[in-house]
Amino acid sequence: MTLPAISELNTTDGASPKVTDWKLNIDLGTLTIIFSEATAFSQINYRAVTLQNSQTSSVSYTLTGGEINPASDTGSKTVVIDLVAADLNALKKHTNLATGHTNSFLTVSPAFIKDTGGNAVIPIRNGNALELNSVNYTSDSSPPVISQWALNFNTNQVLIQFNEIVDVSSINIGELTIQNAPSGSTFISLQSSSVAGTNSTIVKIDLSQSDLNRLNQHLPDNIINNELYLTAKTNFINDLSMAAVESIENGQALKISGINSNSGTNSFTDRATTILSKYSQLQLNGESVFNNGGFYDAYIVKNGIPQPAGGADVTTGNNAWMESDIITSRIGSGIKHRYV
User: Once rounded to an integer, what is the mean pLDDT over residues 225-247?
Assistant: First the structure.
């Protein structure tokens, strides 16, 4: 009888891979998992991974996605996962999960990953979650960064987007400045505006009427031409790890991403001549403001100064709108308007 060659023998591994250790780097946004043998990470199921605050969890978070980090070599026992921004920010938002090694535990289901022989990973279940070794935890030490910002005259808000969740309770409104150019010569530092909402990657600042009026008075051309710039000091706001925001200094001010105004459905800001030339009639809450091209009744602010109700001719006399005038609806009072 002829025996089969060794190469013809079935050498498929019948043992399932096991998670032996893991690492969590909140600063880099990576999750590293070490196995007992090489795995086929091209078939990874991120949703089979859960982080929790103890062996038997009271707080947990299951991943929604990820990407294999280039540090993961094919056939390696180590898989490095780049966490998606949504998962990383969700973890940062928790105050009693993944803030250190003592509240960082890992569970995985058999659907998570297989070895190169097709064997599913041995599950780690709630009740016996794998604790993170103290040397394997790296906290968030990077400063939050402002990525873009916008101004919405319909809601009377400044919207600022960050690369991570920030702590709105740490905000210092006075350290935020809106100016006319990257190296500005006209500056409006917010004074009495307030933050709206909770901790998030997007901070909403409700503009006070005083701050809004100063913007309209000192930066009218910039508002109309979408040429506003933002600077922020390091003590403007912190992230949830108390790292101060990366400053944006005068000379490198960040240009506005957009201005939402003159939409035809809410409040408006524009040059007097633009309003008069484009619209034969303007209505606010159904009341005629422009009739025959020249009269207003209410809800009008000129150069930051509320105008009296009752109607006035805006084309002649002392009430005439000049080319340099900035006209707005009285934003913040729930006024709606439409152009006819």
Answer: 94
